[in-house]
Write a sequence for this structure.
């Protein structure tokens, strides 16, 4: 993500702050005074338009990476506040205006398409009424097999103009069966694990210290995420440990090196780094970090005696990723 793209976070904060200022910090005032105060109405329209027309939530929380560089501190808390306390108020004001512009009445047939009730999260798409996959509301693990179900109609009978579609459908279905049956990829689990990983909003002073070279912090996070999603617990825990070490060494001003008996500089181990960070920073929970490190070791040591990622492994790796997120977002500026 470029610096210009990262500005969407700052734009959100500015527009959201304008709404809160106009409403004197009280969400209920949005609906009460929306039609009475020009400044409030203008701020609401600007923020809601920015969120909807810019497809903000999809761009931020359903991006191909699980991190965003140069995200302002406080963005995530502000966004949670917006979703919990303000978004519904904005919708209550905007939808009636939208209906007026489109000249739709309550009995109009298309009303439900203009002002829909919020759909339940992670549903199976309904092809009778929907024509696209939306990761904000649809469960991809249930959506993907629908394509192969539809393709079976081509695979079961030859096309009257030739066999191309028939054979292409048959080959695709067999490849999918090979992917799920022989290779062993569980599509529903992949989607579930991907959804469970939190987005990391890296402050500028953290993201600016890292490049895109092999072994960078970005690279380690990507590797840890992919390993977790695709069910490789040893790889996921190893890269989580490496990412945690890098964050502590580069961003927590720790004395992480020492001289060995031969006078050569050596890096201290993760256990020592955890102790140093715990002593220096009150918000660093050393016992929790050590517990995660021990759990990661257990995952790696037990890897040879089981052939799949257990629920305990999943919890350990996910907790590790959440902790890395916390330490990145709380990293001191000096």
């Amino acid at each position: 993500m470029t610096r210009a793209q990262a500005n969407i976070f700052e734009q959100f904060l500015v527009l959201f702050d304008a709404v809160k200022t106009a409403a004197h910090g009280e969400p209920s005032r949005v609906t009460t005074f929306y039609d009475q105060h020009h400044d409030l109405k203008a701020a609401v329209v600007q923020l809601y338009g920015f969120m909807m027309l810019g497809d903000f939530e999809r761009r931020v929380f359903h991006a191909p990476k699980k991190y965003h560089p140069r995200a302002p501190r406080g963005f995530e808390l502000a966004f949670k506040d917006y979703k919990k306390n303000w978004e519904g108020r904005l919708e209550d004001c905007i939808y009636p205006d939208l209906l007026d512009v489109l000249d739709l009445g309550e009995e109009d047939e298309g009303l439900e398409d203009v002002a829909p009730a919020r759909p339940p999260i992670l549903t199976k798409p309904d092809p009778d009424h929907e024509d696209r996959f939306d990761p904000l509301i649809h469960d991809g693990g249930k959506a993907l097999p629908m394509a192969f179900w539809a393709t079976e109609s081509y695979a079961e009978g030859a096309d009257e103009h030739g066999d191309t579609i028939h054979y292409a459908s048959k080959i695709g279905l067999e490849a999918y069966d090979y992917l799920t049956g022989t290779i062993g990829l569980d599509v529903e689990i992949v989607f579930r694990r991907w959804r469970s990983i939190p987005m990391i909003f890296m402050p500028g002073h953290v993201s600016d210290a890292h490049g895109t070279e092999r072994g960078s912090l970005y690279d380690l996070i990507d590797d840890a995420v992919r390993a977790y999603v695709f069910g490789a617990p040893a790889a996921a825990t190893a890269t989580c440990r490496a990412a945690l070490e890098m964050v502590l060494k580069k961003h927590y001003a720790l004395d992480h090196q020492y001289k060995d008996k031969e006078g050569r500089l050596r890096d201290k181990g993760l256990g020592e780094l955890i102790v140093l960070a715990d002593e220096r920073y009150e918000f660093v929970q050393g016992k929790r970090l050590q517990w995660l490190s021990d759990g990661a070791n257990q995952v790696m040591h037990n890897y040879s005696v089981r052939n799949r990622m257990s629920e305990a492994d999943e919890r350990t790796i996910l907790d590790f990723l959440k902790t890395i997120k916390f330490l990145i977002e709380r990293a001191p500026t000096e």
Observations:
- The longest helix spans residues 75-102.
- Strands lie at 67-68, 200-201, 257-259, 265-267.
